[in-house]
Amino acid sequence: MIKAKVVLTAWDRTLETRDFSHLSVFLSDDFQFEDTTGEIGDLANTESWCVAGEIRISNFNTIRENDHYIVATHDVEQDDGLR
Question: For the domain with range 4-78, which CATH number is right: 1.10.645.10, 3.40.50.300, 1.25.40.420, 3.10.450.50?
Answer without folding.
Answer: 3.10.450.50
